[in-house]
Amino acid sequence: MSNSAATNTATSWKDYLELTKPKVVLLILLTAVVGMYMAPVETVPIDVLIIATVGIGFASGGAAVVNHVVDQRIDAIMARTLKRPVATGKIDSKRAILFAVFLSVTSMVLLYVFINPLTAVLTFFGLVGYAFVYTMYLKRATPQNIVIGGLSGAIPPLLGWTAVDGQVHPHALLLVLIIFVWTPPHFWALAIFRRDEYAKAEIPMLPVTHGIAFTKLNIVLYTILLLFAAALPYLTGMSKGIYLISSTILGLIFLFYAIKLKNSDERRIAMDTFKYSINYLMLLFVALLVDRYLPVEIF
Ligand code: HEM
Ligand SMILES: CC(C)=CCC/C(C)=C/CC/C(C)=C/COP(=O)(O)OP(=O)(O)O
User: According to its UniProt record, in which pathway does this protein act (predicted)?
Assistant: First the structure.
C-alpha cells in the first residue's frame, strides 16, 4: 500500500464499486437500453439485452476507474472527491488499474464475440474518449473540456441501438445529440457550485476561466438549444405526441431552473439545477419508451 493511513482500513467490494461511478453508469445504461428498444426491430432478444448491458456497463465502469487513477492528485485536493478510494490510498493504483483492465477487456470480449464488432469498436471509442482524451488531456487543457469530452458520455444510446440493429441509424444519432447538448448545462451547474475547488485544483473549468456570469449565460443558451434538440425525435417522426409533450414540459422546467440560476446569486440554485439535470435526462429517456410502447396515440 502506498498510503500508510489506508492500511488500517480494510478494502471492501464497495470501494471497488465506488470506483466505477455506479450512479452515473446506471443512467448511462438506461440511455443504452432505451437505445436498444428504440431500434426498428420487433423485439430485443433477451441475450442481447443482458450481454450488451453488461458490456456497455463494464466499459463505462472501467473508464471511470481509470479516471480515479489519473485524477488521484486533483481528487485529493477537492472536498467533493477527497474521500475517493484511490485518492486516499485505500486502493492503490496498481489494483485499480488491474480492475479497470479486467472490466474493459471483459467488456470488449463480450461485445465483440456475442454482440457485434461495430458495437465493440464504438464502445472502445467511448472508453478511450472519457478515460484518456478527456481525463488525461482535455480536462486540464481547455474550458471546452466537457463539451468535447461529452461525446463519450453521449454515445451509449447509439451503442444500445447498434447492439440490436448493427447499424448507425440517424435516429440513434439524435439521441446522442440530445445527451451531447445536455452535458454542458449538467456539468456547468455543478461547476458553478464547486468553482473554488476547481480553481484550487487548477482545473480550467468554464466558471474558473470565464467567470460565473458567463457560465450562467452559457447554461441558459445550451438549455434553449436542448429544448430544440429534444424536439427532433418528434419532428423527424421517430416519436409521437406523448414524447413531445413530455420533452417540452421537461425542457421548460430545465429552462426555468437555468433562468432562475442566471438571475440569482444563491449557490443552492446551482445545485438544484444540477440535480434537476439528472432527473431531466432520466425522465426524457423514459418518455421515449412510454411514447413508443404505450398502446395509446394522442397525435
Ligand atoms: C463529460 C461529460 C460529463 C461530465 C463532465 C459530468 C460531470 C459530473 C460530475 C463532476 C458529477 C459529480 C457530482 C458530485 O459528485 O457531486 C456528475 C454526477 C452525475 N452525472 Fe455527470 N457528467 C458527465 C456526463 C454524464 C452522463 C453522460 C451521465 C449519464 C447519462 C451523467 C450522469 C450523472 C449522474 C447520474 C450523476 C450523479 C452521481 C451521484 O449522485 O453520485 N453524467 N457528473
Ligand atoms: C464506454 C463509455 C460509454 C464510457 C462512458 C464514460 C463515462 C463514465 C462518462 C461519464 C462522464 C463523467 C462522469 C464525467 C465526470 O467528469 P469528471 O471525471 O471530471 O468528474 P469527477 O471530478 O467527478 O471525477
Answer: Porphyrin-containing compound metabolism; heme O biosynthesis; heme O from protoheme: step 1/1
**Is residue 278 lining ligand 1, measured as CB closer than 6 Å?**
yes
What does CATH list as the number for 1-167?
1.10.357.140
Where are the chain's structural domains?
1-167, 169-299
Identify the CA nearest to 162 among candidates 201, 199, 116, 128. 116
Between 46-70 and 156-165, two packed helices, what is the crossing angle to 10 degrees? 150
pLDDT at 65 over 70: yes
3-state secondary structure of 225: helix
Q: For ligand 1, is residue 153 a contact (CB within 6 Å)?
A: yes
| pLDDT value of position 298 | 85
CB 218 within 8 A of CB 206: yes
Query: What is the distance between the alpha carbons of residues 264 and 65, in angstroms, rounded to a whole number?
Result: 36
pLDDT tens-digit profile of 99-120?
Answer: 999 999 999 999 999 999 999 9
* CA 187 / ligand 1 centre spacing (Å): 7
- Tell me the whole-structure pTM to 2 decimals: 0.96
Measure the CA dihedral 179/181/184/186, to 10°: -50
Percentage of the chain modeled with pLDDT above 90: 96
ipTM: 0.96
Question: Inter-axis angle of helices 267-293 and 241-262, to 10 degrees?
Answer: 180
The residue type found at 66 is V
The cell for 126 is: 467511448
pLDDT tens digit sequence for 175-190: 999 999 999 999 999 9
